Amino acid sequence: MNLKAGLFQTQQLKLQMTQQLSQAITILQYSTMELNAYLEAKQLENPLIQLEAPKQDHLHHRDPHTYKRTAGKSHDNTVDWYEYVSVPKGSISDALTSQLHLKSLTYSERKIMEELIYSLDDNGYLRIDEESFIRKHHLESNQLERYINSLQQMEPAGIGARSLQECISLQLKKRANVPSLVMSIVDDYFQALAEKKWKKIAKDLSVELKDIQQAADFIQHCNPRPGSTYSQHVSEYIIPELVVKVLNDRRISVSLNDGTTINVTYNEEYTDFLNHHPDKEVRSYLQEKEQDFKWLLQSLRQRKQTILKVGKMLAEKQKAFFFKGPSAIQPLTLKQVADEIDVHESTISRTVKGKYMQTPYGIFELKYFFTSAIKSVKTDDLETASATTVKNELQQLINEEDKKKPLSDQKIVNLLLDKGYDVSRRTIAKYRDQLGIASSTMRKRYE
Asked: Is the domain covering 372-443 a CATH 2.40.420.20 domain?
């Protein structure tokens, strides 16, 4: 009997340790916003947990009026930090339903229109199986078309389209002074325009290539995602968890931004209950919750320690970045940092996920500092350059190219080789795709 009891206690201890480890791992990989939501949920299930709002000082260590936007764009663009605060917006369904109330409709007509509205995706496109819809509502195909047309008359222009071509066409029809060539191209040569088969279009319509270019530029002003203005996905307010400063003596300081997460404290009101409550079950329950509270505090301490360790190691490994800027970033892998601070590679992966660092060059996600190596040949030495550095060089070449004679991938390979970077044509194509840069054929302009 005692043997069974002993086995049971051992299994219970292992289960608790597994739960504690699982909690620590979960907390480590949470972003600031996710962690705060997690803590609020924990408070609801544990009466001993008391939460205090974080100090709102995450903007006080710099000019309170500016924030530097960095996500893949120029790091010199200073913008009003108020842009980082999410502005609640209604959904596209709400906007269209409000317009629907202004129409004089029967009950059945309103229900059909509402179903069409709720069948729109986040970009504002209509996603229905028309045959099934017709059968469900006992309609004729021309009746459904009238309902869809009624939806497409609503704002924003282009809403309710079933294809990109229809979306663009709907917007152009609501605009004044649209050149007839533009409408002809959208209605009859839309695919050819997208595929840059402009010579065929010019020949068929008896116009010059520069006319097609002007029409394409006109079409570019249309919105391919008219519903995105009302996207229900709320953007997060990015708060850096680490702050890096370059000191006057060329040293780098790395510190935690303590004003980011909710503070967890012990609810002292339950102290007497825990020690003196006559009901053993209540005391047992509170003792369990006290252990849970201690585990939570330990997990939060471990999270801070790990993030700070990784931040300091990044500052050491990427020292050139903090002195010279993004162009000086060096190759670095998760394994290299994991080996340096003696943790598993998966721990580093969880640590950098969704965490941000404020630097003299703006705010960067921690994973930005991990980049693969590219062979770089300079003089007689074989060195390495980061993929990010090569991408920056690629972007600069594209920015400066003659748009009437855009650089081919092979030409870019040759130019980068002249700069000391040995990169294959396939790699250039991959980097173009990651940077959202079209092929030379698609980038070509005819005026």
From this structure: no
